[in-house]
Give the backbone structure.
Amino acid sequence: MLTVHALRIELAKSYRVAVDLLSEMPGVLEGIGLTRLPHYTVLRTWFERIPTKTWRAFLGASAGKRTGHAAIDSTGFDRDQPSRHYANRTNYRVRALKVTALVDVETLYITDIHSMTSKKHDAKIGPQVARRNAGDLRSLAADRGYDAKAFRDELRENGIRPLIKHRLMNPLDHAHNARMDGDRYHQRSMSETVF
C-alpha cells in the first residue's frame, strides 16, 4: 500500500486516477506484489490512518546511516483557504500548519518531523525533537529561535553539542557566539533546503 501511495505522489495524480493508471500496468503491479488493486477510497483511508509514530519509524529506517550532525528548523504552510461562510459555520480556525524538521546536514536525510496547528515557540518544540533522536546526535545546529538555556543544558546532558547562537542581550552573548564553530553552525542552512 505504501508503494502504491508513493507511486501516486510520483505521478502527481489523485487517488482515483492513480488507481486507474496502475490497473493498466500489470508489470508494475507484479513488481510490487499486488494481484489486484484496492479501491481508491481504501487507499486514501489507509493512508490517513497511519499514525505519526509509524511515519517516524519509516523516516528513521529510510534515512540510512546518520552522521550525527543535524540541524533543526521549522516553517509554516498555509492550509487550503475555505470560504468565510464555511469557516464560520463549522468553527474552522486552523489557518496554518507549522512543520519542524530535523535534517542530517551531510546526507540531507530528514530524520524526524514534528507538525502542529497551534502556535508553539521553536524553543518548546526543539527539545521534544532532540529527545526523540538523542541516541543518534552528536551536534545540533539551530537558529536563534531555539535559544534557551534549558534546551542547551538538556543537549549537553545527552552528550550533544549545541550549535545554537545566543540572542544578543548582553556582552557575554557576543563572546559565546564568537567561540562557536562557524563551519558546523553554518551547515544549519542545509535544513532549509528540504522545505
